[in-house]
Every structure is written in C-alpha cells, then in structure tokens.
C-alpha cells in the first residue's frame, strides 16, 4: 500500500487559489518545487503494481468534469479507413522485405549439385525424391530401393506403383537396386529408411559411401534397444563419426508434397553452413525450409510425436470427445518438452515447426499412420492385426518402448506416453489407461 502525504507547509500551495474550489485541484497547483513523500507499507514492487495513476483527478461530488474526453467511435468510416490503411502498409512492407530477401538469396548450391541419392522407396522418400528432381531438370536423382517391382515401375512407368500409382514422377528420377551405382558421385544423400532397419541397412552399403557425403535424415524415431537417434545411428553404422549429418523434420504428409501443396519444414545441423546449403537445395515456391542448430530437439520431437499420435488416435477410437483430445495432446506436449529439455533441447524448438507443428498434424489428421493405429486400438482391434494390414511402417509403435526407457534414464514422468507403451505391450487396455490417467494426482501445471 502506498500513502501519498500532502506537504505540511502552505507555501507549496497557490495562495491566490479560491478557497471554495475543488480541494483536489487546489493541492495540485504548486508555486514551488514540492516534496512528495511516499510511505510504503508493503514491498516496493507490490506497491508499484497496485498503484494506478491517472492524468486527471478523481471526480468530486458537486464538481462535474468540465471537459470530459470524448469516446472515439471505432466504427466510424474514418476509423475503419485508417485501420485498413495501416494493415495495407504493414502487408506491403512485409512483401517488400520478402522480395528483397529473395533477390539476395543464393542459388549456387543447386547450380553446383549434379546428383542426389535417396535411400528407400517408401512414400516420403518418393515424395522428397520427386521434389528434388523438380528443382532442376538437369539434376540426376537416384532412388535406391529393395523392391524390384517398385524399381521397374519408377523406371518404366514413372510412378511408384506401391504408394503413388496415380502421380507421375519427373523424368530425371530413376530407381535402382544397386547401392554402388546409386551412391557413385552423389552430392547429397536423403535417408528415408525406417529407423529400426537403418543400422543394418547402412552397414551393408557403408563401403560405397563417400566420407564427406552429407546425409539428410528423413527418418523419425528411436532405435528400440539402443535408444539412439538417427544422428547417432548414421555415423556409427557407417563407421565415420565425421559423416556430415542433417535432420529434416516438420509437419509434412507425403501425399501433400506430391500434390505441391504449401509446406514448411526445418533442417537442423550443428554445421550452420551445411544447414544453409541444404536449405538452398530443398526450398522452393511450395516448400519453405527453416534452419536450426538444435539437432537433438528436432529429432526427439519428431520421434515422440509419433507415440503421442497413437494416444490421440486411441481417444478418437474410443469416442471420448474433443475435451479429452485437447487435454491429452496438451499433456503429451508437456511430456515431450520435459524430456527434450532434459536431453539438452531448446524449448523454442519444441514449440516450433518440428515440435508443435508436427504434433498437430500427426495427432489431428487422418492421413497419419500412427494416429490410424491408435484409432483402431481404441476401437478394440488387436495390434498384430492392425500392423499386418498396413503397407507402411508406423514408427510410434516401436518408439513407444524406447520413450519409456529414456524417461527412466532422465528421471522424467511421462504418464501419457508410458500408457501408450503399456497398451502396445498388451499390458493395459485403453479403457483402463483412461481411468488411470484421470485418477492421477491433481497437480500444479508446469
């Protein structure tokens, strides 16, 4: 509380002021420099916070305000016109900045790049291969695939018969089952092999990999037995700790990339120059690429969001409603942030494109493989039946167990993601999991 004490000496007041005038105004007209005494009855910070200042004195009964401030009419035509003009100027300024930046943007990386190899013939590998091939007609893009039928389909019919039978692939995109031929002379390598198979796959082709070939990882997940991320798997499998590495992540469905719909993603590398180079290589008029140095944050968010998507699917499959969905996803986001920051990630990464952006897409959209697994689990189907009916890998299923092990390693409580792991291990039913989660102690939000 602040007490304002009136100066005791009458010499501070204007002697010519009419005695019957507003006493508040009389005390405010000074002829000399006054001394204002403040007496604090509580800490200064609280006092300042509670103090409310006004340019005009409070009204006094019997003394109406002679000059009240008119309330502006915000709906008047002039006001609306001013607002529109301000918005238009702000937008024009943004567009000028964007054009200026684009005019200075470097394109030398794309010009110098002659060959890109993509490891894996899945949906996302195919979509990124097509995107890179579209960047420059003279660019040679090789896809290293296992399935001879897919290889033949790409080379003869210019489509991936397994994943995108109705999408025509660029003429400069070819497929092969020969690792040596695919990797020979490559300037960049896009790794799109599922995480659980990456280590053995890379060990088998390591003899053909140039030590300086940059690996751009499209794979999201954690290796189940070792808890390793792709930034650890790739250099160790290739027996080269200095193998250049970049993680590509963000909210991106392969189908929408194939349809050239606007998309934004993040490339993360500890080497800033390398991240900028990959940004130049991949960015286009329908794909925005941001750069980051937080490799751990980008990778761990990309891995854990798949597990959370299974949880979101379970809520949908059980018809628990929108309130439940929002509460569960919010809790899951907090759990991902707790673990990621314990592992050294930046909180801003978790709230960015590769974190919250990817979580929103994977948890709320039906195209998500992991969400689909959750929906079917919540509807009562058995996991084995679900997985045997899918032609793509749902990384969240194998990642769930690794997440629990990481949580124990870093001493982080992750009730939602742990519940998913228990359901996948058939040790907990979705209904029982919901009951246990709702019975957790009521705690302060952090």
TrEMBL record:
Residues 294-434 form the Glycerol-3-phosphate dehydrogenase NAD-dependent C-terminal domain. Gene3D superfamilies: N-(1-d-carboxylethyl)-l-norvaline Dehydrogenase, domain 2, NAD(P)-binding Rossmann-like Domain. It is found in: Plastid, Chloroplast. SUPFAM superfamilies: 6-phosphogluconate dehydrogenase C-terminal domain-like, NAD(P)-binding Rossmann-fold domains. It comes from the Eukaryota. It holds the Pfam family NAD_Gly3P_dh_C. Residues 51-84 are annotated as: Disordered. PROSITE patterns: NAD_G3PDH. GO terms for biological process: carbohydrate metabolic process; glycerol-3-phosphate catabolic process; phospholipid biosynthetic process. It catalyses: sn-glycerol 3-phosphate + NAD(+) = dihydroxyacetone phosphate + NADH + H(+). Residues 115-274 form the Glycerol-3-phosphate dehydrogenase NAD-dependent N-terminal domain. Its EC number is 1.1.1.8. One of its GO terms (molecular function) is glycerol-3-phosphate dehydrogenase (NAD+) activity. Pathway: Membrane lipid metabolism; glycerophospholipid metabolism; Lipid metabolism; Phospholipid metabolism. Keywords: Chloroplast, Lipid biosynthesis, Lipid metabolism, NAD, Oxidoreductase, Phospholipid biosynthesis, Phospholipid metabolism, Plastid, Transit peptide. One of its GO terms (cellular component) is chloroplast. NCBIfam families: PRK00094.1-2 (NF000940), PRK00094.1-4 (NF000942). Belongs to the NAD-dependent glycerol-3-phosphate dehydrogenase family. This is Glycerol-3-phosphate dehydrogenase [NAD(+)]. It comes from Trema orientale (Charcoal tree). The lineage of its organism: Eukaryota, Viridiplantae, Streptophyta, Embryophyta, Tracheophyta.
């Amino acid at each position: 509380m602040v007490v304002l004490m009136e100066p005791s000496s009458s010499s501070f007041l204007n002697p010519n002021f009419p005695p019957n005038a507003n006493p508040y105004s009389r005390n405010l007209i000074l002829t000399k420099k006054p001394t204002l005494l403040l007496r604090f009855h509580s800490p200064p910070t609280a006092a300042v916070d509670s103090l409310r200042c006004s340019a005009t004195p409070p009204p006094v009964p019997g003394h109406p305000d002679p000059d009240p401030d008119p309330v502006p009419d915000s709906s008047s035509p002039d006001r609306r016109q001013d607002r529109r003009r301000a918005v238009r100027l702000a937008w024009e300024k943004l567009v000028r900045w964007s054009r200026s930046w684009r005019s200075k943007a470097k394109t030398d990386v794309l010009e110098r790049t002659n060959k890109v190899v993509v490891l894996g013939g899945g949906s996302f590998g195919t979509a990124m291969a097509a995107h890179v091939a579209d960047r420059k007609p003279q660019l040679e893009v090789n896809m290293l695939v296992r399935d001879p039928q897919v290889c033949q389909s790409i080379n003869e019919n210019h489509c991936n018969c397994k994943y995108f039978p109705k999408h025509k692939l660029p003429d400069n995109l070819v497929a092969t089952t020969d690792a040596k031929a695919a990797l020979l002379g490559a300037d960049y390598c896009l790794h799109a092999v599922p995480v659980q198979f990456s280590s053995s796959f890379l060990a088998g082709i390591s003899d053909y990999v140039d030590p300086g070939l940059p690996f751009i990882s499209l794979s999201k997940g954690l290796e189940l037995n070792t808890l390793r991320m792709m930034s650890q798997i790739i250099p160790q499998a290739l027996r080269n700790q200095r193998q250049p590495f970049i993680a590509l992540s963000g909210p991106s469905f392969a189908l929408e990339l194939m349809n050239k719909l606007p998309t934004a993603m993040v490339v993360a590398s500890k080497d800033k120059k390398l991240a900028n180079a990959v940004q130049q290589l991949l960015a286009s008029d329908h794909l925005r690429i941001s750069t980051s140095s937080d490799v751990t944050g980008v990778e761990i968010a990309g891995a854990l969001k798949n597990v959370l998507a299974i949880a979101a699917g379970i809520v949908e499959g059980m018809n628990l409603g929108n309130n439940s969905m929002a509460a569960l996803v919010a809790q899951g986001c907090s759990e991902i942030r707790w673990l990621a920051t314990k592992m050294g990630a930046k909180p801003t990464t978790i709230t960015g494109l590769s974190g919250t952006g990817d979580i929103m897409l994977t948890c709320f959209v039906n195209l998500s493989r992991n969400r689909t697994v959750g929906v079917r689990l919540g509807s009562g189907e058995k996991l084995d039946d679900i997985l045997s009916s899918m032609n793509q890998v749902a990384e969240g299923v194998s990642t769930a167990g690794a997440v629990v092990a990481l949580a124990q390693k870093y001493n982080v409580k992750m009730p939602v993601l742990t519940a998913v792991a228990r359901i996948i291990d058939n040790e907990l039913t979705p209904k029982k999991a919901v009951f246990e989660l709702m019975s957790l102690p009521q705690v302060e939000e952090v």
